[in-house]
Amino acid sequence: MSRYWSSLIDRLTPYIPGEQPKQQNVIKLNTNENPYPPSPMIKEAMIGEMDRLRLYPDPNADILKDAISKVYEVSRENIFVGGNGSDEILAHIFHGLLKHDLPILFPEITYSFYPVYCALYDITFEKIPLDGSFQIRLGDYIRPNGGIIFPNPNAPTGCIRPIEEIENLLKQNPDSIVVVDEAYIDFGGESAIPLTKKYENLLVVQTLSKSRSLAGLRVGFAIGSLPLIEALERVKNSFNSYPLDRLAIAGATASILDRNHFEKTRQKIIETREQLSKKLENLGFFVLPSKTNFLFARHPEHDGKRLHQMLRDKGILVRHFTDPKINQYLRITIGTEEECEILTKTLSSIL
Ligand code: PMP
């Protein structure tokens, strides 16, 4: 194409979401969804909202903010809630807060949406290498100002940095915006939310897609200082004043308030993860320590791509990445105990 706009199209390098197969009989361990249904409380709340669908939703989603405020012990003014998952909140963050004269920093191996947003919003970035054990080296993220973003725990590795290191990073970067993407924090990690009360430059982003089994509802939230939340509100209101529909607000609120269901399901996933990790090690896999709802593992004698294909042929979907730095690894979502049992039996039959 030689038209002037071909370069505009070339610049866009979209994220390709994980496969969502149409068949029902597939064991789906490829997109880090929760294997358990969401809180039963959400049904009643959402049905109750049906008759009101003729009305616009509350643009501020105050009942949801109140629920988050209660459960996470932060003021309502320090909460931003957003539609279409935390991905859309991340988009607002890149758009409104991370654009800078200096390149923004994120890990070399991390959530592959970050460079996509950079391309969309014309943001320059620098990828910081992980250490030899796939850990994020927060000591390498020192900047006079600008932006820093990383998932904690990281994806797709599953590894976590302790909260003391994050506090240290904040102390060393008082003039940079530091964004911690906590999509997987509920599976055994310590959240940085309490640090938002002490550090004005910290923004923590969470999602209801993983630990609350609501990937299909598309709701996320961010917690931070008043100026950072105000910035996100301005981006939101320049983009779509109603990011959450009535059903999403009702369902998400009920989910946040159902602490029992949340505790039960996340503990179950943590237990299954530890069992699966041991079983994979017994099969000869090298498994990275994980604080997420997935495992990142490679077999020293079997090619990652081939293993991925062999599992696929037997109806088990896991995630494989083409990046040569990690192409020997499989990222395996923690399913139910039964699903993990079928996975390990299948692996032992093909190894
Ligand atoms: N951050 C990370 C690190 C993720 O892996 C994901 C899920 N793909 C997200 C954010 C976004 O999740 P969602 O849009 O479903 O909230």
UniProtKB/TrEMBL annotation:
EC numbers on record: 2.6.1.9
Enzyme class: transferase
Residues the record lists as N6-(pyridoxal phosphate)lysine modifications: K210
Transmembrane segments: none
Record note on quaternary structure: Homodimer.
Entry GO MF terms: histidinol-phosphate transaminase activity; pyridoxal phosphate binding
This protein's record includes keyword Amino-acid biosynthesis: yes
Keyword Amino-acid biosynthesis listed: yes
Alphabetical keyword list: Amino-acid biosynthesis, Aminotransferase, Histidine biosynthesis, Pyridoxal phosphate, Transferase
Protein name: Histidinol-phosphate aminotransferase
Superkingdom, taxonomy of origin: Bacteria
Pathway(s) per entry: Amino-acid biosynthesis; L-histidine biosynthesis; L-histidine from 5-phospho-alpha-D-ribose 1-diphosphate: step 7/9
Protein family per UniProt: Belongs to the class-II pyridoxal-phosphate-dependent aminotransferase family. Histidinol-phosphate aminotransferase subfamily.
Domain spans labelled Aminotransferase class I/classII large: 25-345
Gene name of the encoded protein: hisC
NCBIfam families (alphabetical): hisC (TIGR01141)
